[in-house]
Design a protein that fits this description.
This protein has helices spanning 17-25, 39-43, 45-49, 68-91, 104-113, 129-134, 167-174, 192-200, 235-240, 251-259, 276-286, 298-311, 313-321, 329-341; strands spanning 4-8, 30-35, 53-56, 95-98, 118-122, 140-143, 152-153, 182-186, 210-214, 227-229, 244-247, 264-266, 290-292. It is of the alpha/beta class. The strands form two sheets. Strands 3-2-1-4-5-6-7 form a seven-stranded parallel β-sheet, sandwiched between helices.
Length: 347
């Protein structure tokens, strides 16, 4: 009987792309994804076309501000858990893997109720609310950093292609000829606006760099001195062609840039986060992998910081090469397979 694995996680791309990296490594198994009809379904479309089975449930995010919606959350969570249980009963998986986010919590709870082994993974320096709760229901807790005494540190889950990008393909993707160094700008799904605006207000960057901006969904910049795209699928090729990057403080992005040896300037998102991006940014910058700029200083410091990161790229890349242990995809695959092997159906 073939092995069946359920993946879950969502809310931001950082909760979905690690799952895609694992799915790519576990093609010998029958892989399923449980998510909402929103971002997760959009980002997994290519994988679904290649054989991934996708299942939709409802899930609701806990708002950080006082809200009447939070009073309804326990009832909505019960409904989501019931939906997840129906899906898991139908699939009968050997293991469930959750990358966190609000869609991962009901699936993790449902798996515990059905006695299905569950592995969760936390990317950030501090665990998100969904994973803090999920940790009470999971059999195995993995993390990139020592964020919790219960967690086993295994590194970040990223696509192996990050280590082997094609520079020429990346230049073609961005529309550049390679005659100037490339500045890549990527702000993620929540924090793109401030970075986009800061770059738009600093045209003198284009005197030295070819600028490519991943703008984020439904965002467009009215600038004639840069090239832009809402989304890039094969980011590893773009990174291979990038000389310096302006980014937020998501752990996935900072680790991918470090592993791809791309010097960066990180502007962590603070207002719309629990502070994890600032913690992530400090960890990487303390190890010499990039430079940190606070958002309130971005307009004033942008030009100098980007040029400083580029001018010091050799020293930064030396520090980045020392962080090879960040790559944890293979370790996570090993844990998932070991956990599945202990399922009563296989034991």
């Amino acid at each position: 009987m073939g092995m069946k694995i359920v993946f879950t996680g969502g809310g931001t791309a950082g909760h979905v792309t690690p799952n895609l990296a694992l799915i790519d490594k576990l093609r010998q198994a029958e892989c399923h994804y449980v998510g909402t009809a929103g971002m997760e379904q959009t980002l997994t479309k290519k994988a679904v076309d290649e054989g991934l089975h996708y299942h939709v449930i409802s899930a609701h995010k806990l708002k950080r501000k006082l809200s009447i919606q939070n009073l309804l959350l326990p009832f909505r969570l019960c409904k989501s858990v019931a939906e997840a249980k129906r899906v898991l009963r139908q699939i009968r998986p050997d293991v469930v893997f959750s990358k966190g986010g609000y869609v991962g919590l009901p699936v993790t709870i449902a798996a515990r109720k059905l006695k299905i082994p569950t592995v969760i993974h936390e990317s950030d320096m501090s665990a998100g609310l969904a994973n803090r709760v999920s940790a009470h229901f999971a059999d195995v807790y993995l993390s990139t950093f020592p964020c919790d005494k219960r967690a086993k540190v295994t590194g970040l889950i990223v696509r192996e292609e990050i280590l082997h990008g094609d520079r020429e393909k990346g230049l073609r993707e961005m529309g550049f000829d390679g005659s100037k160094p490339v500045l890549l700008v990527m702000g993620g799904s929540l924090g793109a606006k401030a970075l986009n605006e800061a770059v738009a207000n600093c045209p003198r960057l284009a005197e030295r760099f070819d600028i490519f901006v991943i703008t984020g969904k439904n965002k467009h910049m009215g600038c004639d001195f840069l090239k832009q795209s809402e989304f890039v699928s094969e980011i590893w090729n773009v990174l291979a062609a990038t000389d310096v990057c302006l980014t937020r403080g998501g752990s996935n992005s900072l680790a991918e840039l470090t592993l791809a040896q791309v010097p960066f300037v990180t502007v962590p998102l603070v207002k719309q986060s629990r502070g994890e991006q600032l913690q992530n940014a400090k960890w990487f910058c303390e190890r010499g992998c990039g430079l940190l700029v606070h958002e309130e200083n971005l307009e004033r410091e942008l030009f100098g910081a980007v040029n400083a990161a580029y001018d010091n790229r050799a020293a930064i890349q030396t520090k980045q090469r020392a962080q090879k242990e960040l790559y944890g995809t293979d370790k996570a695959v090993e844990v998932i397979l070991q956990t599945a092997a202990h399922h009563p159906r296989r034991a």
